[in-house]
Amino acid sequence: MNIEIDTSWINNYEEKERKYEQFYKKPVEKITFFFCYISTTNEIYKIRKDTISLTNSRITKEELIQIIKRNEIEDNIIYRFKRLIQYNDKTEIEEIYNNKKTNTEFIKILNCATLDDMIFDKTIGLFENLNSLFFLYKERSFNNNKKTRKKLKKHKD
Fold this sequence. Notes:
3 helices, six-stranded mixed sheet
């Protein structure tokens, strides 16, 4: 006895489901870096953009330090790293459907003393390109007008 089972409905379902894959959360595979260079007069001098692929939705502390050091000089101007801002979109599909924002913990601000591995939480595929790291650099000022004074204590004899 040879029984044939019709499985075409499974194929149809999977094909329809593929259209909605962009609305399911998935691990973050790539992020955008923004390198923001700020002048001594606190004006944005330049913003440079780059994209990097991640392994396990993570960038290690060592990789971050290398990136920070590698980008301290821009247009022959020396900059000092000031802050790292992580944007990780955590929007839930229900928030889109109901047009209500309930999760507001998207931004994490770190300075160089608190650097650690950066982990990106799963993101709806449609919003993956929003996940970013902002590296803020401030131009080093070499002010030679600083005068040092030596305070002398008077001794009573």
